[in-house]
From TrEMBL:
<keyword id="KW-0732">Signal</keyword>
<feature type="domain" description="Expansin-like EG45">
    <location>
        <begin position="34"/>
        <end position="138"/>
    </location>
</feature>
<keyword id="KW-0964">Secreted</keyword>
<dbReference type="GO" id="GO:0048046">
    <property type="term" value="C:apoplast"/>
</dbReference>
<dbReference type="InterPro" id="IPR044206">
    <property type="entry name" value="EGC1/2"/>
</dbReference>
<protein>
    <recommendedName>
        <fullName>Expansin-like EG45 domain-containing protein</fullName>
    </recommendedName>
</protein>
<dbReference type="InterPro" id="IPR036908">
    <property type="entry name" value="RlpA-like_sf"/>
</dbReference>
<dbReference type="Pfam" id="PF03330">
    <property type="entry name" value="DPBB_1"/>
</dbReference>
<dbReference type="GO" id="GO:0009627">
    <property type="term" value="P:systemic acquired resistance"/>
</dbReference>
<dbReference type="InterPro" id="IPR009009">
    <property type="entry name" value="RlpA-like_DPBB"/>
</dbReference>
<dbReference type="InterPro" id="IPR007112">
    <property type="entry name" value="Expansin/allergen_DPBB_dom"/>
</dbReference>
């Protein structure tokens, strides 16, 4: 059986490689703060997929993540972190949801991510209308 040590790679090099790989994994998993709103059916057509049905765990991306359609198909884990207004003081359910970006939320969009009504309801009380979130690409 060959080992890294037998191939000229010493312990310091292996340790450095492990630290770099761990740092990369941590940076990819770092949550970004933003806000979420929701939209209601019908969910088609969409900017990314036309009339194709992508289910209901979907979202529209604001300019913050749209990047000239590059966001199409990306999946994000979204977690409610709190209210943005005084209407619903504790809107979060404690759940997270993974959504697929299928649409564009045009300029003037009120949230970083505009979730489907079903996705929003999974993580927060819809009466809140707009919530603070953390989101990460998965």
């Amino acid at each position: 059986m060959l080992s890294c040590f037998g191939m000229g790679m010493g312990k310091p090099a292996i340790l450095l490689a492990a630290v770099v790989m761990l740092g990369t994994a941590v940076s990819l998993a770092a949550a970004i703060a933003g806000t979420a709103t929701f939209y209601t059916p019908p969910y088609v057509p969409s900017s990314c997929y036309g009339y194709a049905d992508n289910g209901v765990m979907i979202a529209a991306a604001s300019d913050v993540i749209w990047n000239n359609r590059a966001a199409c198909g990306r999946r994000y884990r979204v977690t409610c972190t709190g209210p943005t207004n005084q209407g619903v003081p504790q809107p979060c359910t404690g759940a997270s949801v993974v959504v697929k970006i299928v649409d564009y939320c045009p300029p003037g969009c009120q949230g970083t991510i505009d979730l489907s009504q079903e996705a929003f309801r999974t993580i927060a009380n819809p009466d809140a209308g707009k919530i603070r979130i953390d989101y990460t690409q998965v």
